[in-house]
Structures are given as structure tokens and as C-alpha cells.
Design the sequence.
């Protein structure tokens, strides 16, 4: 875990719910269950996006449950894995709305994470082949604490929440919507993208808000993942 995140969240590690998460994962390992992402990547989001650099939080649900997919960022996959359907639709919306954006062949969102976009799933692990299999073990409390740590950082700079689908919208219930910008739509999955995700203009609207509140030099360069 990134040092600043560890410092902000260290009190969570001694709470009963977090000990329960740990014991659950140990039990999974003893049963020889395959868990994604790999242990070293569970907190990858924290190393790539320091707390004081977060400008946008993209709330996902749980990691991809297939091999060679999840690496600790919501929606993101590493090469040579091809972008999954939801990420393909995210790219399509970026192409339509962001000037100069070109759809990459890679599904790796690391450059955007380093630019200040926190790609955070509400559950940080999953059993191979079983979507949402770790969604009830307590991760939601921990990732909510992570989001709260961003909102409570010194200086009081707000963030843009991109919450796509009912699960993501529920995950931020109770957060300050006056100090922070919340952009909602349906999920970008093929089942729902045409019902409101396409045309949502979230990537441009996020930058408009960031420019107004953080300054024009702080906007996200969404083209950083353009094909090289």
C-alpha cells in the first residue's frame, strides 16, 4: 500500500471487520481458491494515485474474475489482455466527447491513475470465475474509508465522483455533494451503455468542474492513454 494511504487508513486494520476480511482471505488460500488480483496488486490503486493527487474517483464494483485481467484498478487490464466490453464502451464515450482522444488497443489505465484518477472497486478481491464472490466480506467498509480519506485530506479540495450504475451510486451515499461533484449514469456494460452512458459527457464535465475549483492547470489529460 502507498505510504500516505497506509497512514490515512491504519486505524482500519485493527477493526473487527478488517480482521474478518483477512481471516476470510486466509481461509480462501487454504482451500486453494484462486483469488484475483494477485496479492501484490490488491492495493495497486494506492501506489499509483497518492491521496493528495486524487481529482477524480471512478467507482467500480469488484475485480475482473478471469485470468490475466485484474491488476488493482477498476475497469483496467494489462496487456496482452484485450479491453473488456465495459472498458471498450468507456473508450467509445471518450472518443466521442474528448477532443484528440484515440482509442487505444491496451486496456491499461495506469497513466490515468498516475494523472489523478482513482480507479477504485468497492471490493478489492474476487474468487476466480465467480463475480461478486467477495462482495459481502467487508471490503465495502474499507473502500468507503479510503474514499472518506480523500474527502478529509488537508486543504479540503473536492473531487469528481464518476458513478456508473446503481451499485456505484449506492457506494457514495452520504458523501458531501456540495463540496464534491457527482456525475451519475447507467453502467457502461453492453447491457446498459446505450441507455444513458453514451452521451453522458462525464469526462468533459469532470474537467470543467476541476478547472473551476482546482484551476485550469489541474484538469485530467484523458488522452494520456492514446496509442503511442
Sequence:
Amino acid at each position: 500500500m502507498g505510504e500516505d494511504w497506509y497512514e490515512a487508513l491504519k486505524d482500519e486494520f485493527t477493526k473487527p471487520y478488517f480482521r474478518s476480511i483477512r481471516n476470510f482471505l486466509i481461509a480462501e488460500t487454504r482451500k486453494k481458491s484462486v483469488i484475483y488480483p494477485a496479492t501484490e496488486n490488491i492495493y495497486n490503486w494506492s501506489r499509483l494515485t497518492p491521496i493528495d493527487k486524487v481529482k477524480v474517483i471512478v467507482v467500480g464494483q469488484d475485480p475482473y474474475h478471469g485470468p490475466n485481467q485484474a491488476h488493482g484498478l477498476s475497469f483496467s487490464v494489462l496487456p496482452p489482455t484485450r479491453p473488456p466490453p465495459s472498458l471498450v464502451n468507456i473508450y467509445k464515450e471518450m472518443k466521442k466527447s474528448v477532443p484528440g482522444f484515440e482509442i487505444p488497443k491496451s486496456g491499461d489505465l495506469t497513466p490515468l491513475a498516475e494523472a489523478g484518477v482513482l480507479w477504485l472497486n468497492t471490493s478489492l478481491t474476487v474468487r476466480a470465475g465467480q463475480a461478486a464472490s467477495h462482495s459481502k466480506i467487508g471490503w465495502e467498509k474499507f473502500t468507503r474509508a479510503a474514499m472518506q480519506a480523500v474527502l478529509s485530506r488537508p486543504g479540503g479540495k473536492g473531487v469528481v465522483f464518476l458513478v456508473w450504475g446503481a451499485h456505484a451510486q449506492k457506494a457514495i451515499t452520504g458523501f458531501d455533494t456540495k463540496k464534491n461533484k457527482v456525475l451519475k449514469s447507467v453502467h457502461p456494460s453492453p447491457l446498459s451503455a446505450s441507455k444513458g452512458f453514451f452521451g453522458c459527457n462525464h469526462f468533459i464535465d469532470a474537467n470543467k468542474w476541476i478547472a473551476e475549483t482546482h484551476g485550469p492547470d489541474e484538469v485530467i489529460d484523458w488522452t494520456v492513454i492514446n496509442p503511442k
The beta strands are 35-36, 56-60, 117-121, 126-127, 160-164, 181-185. The chain has one domain: 3-217. The mean pLDDT is 97.
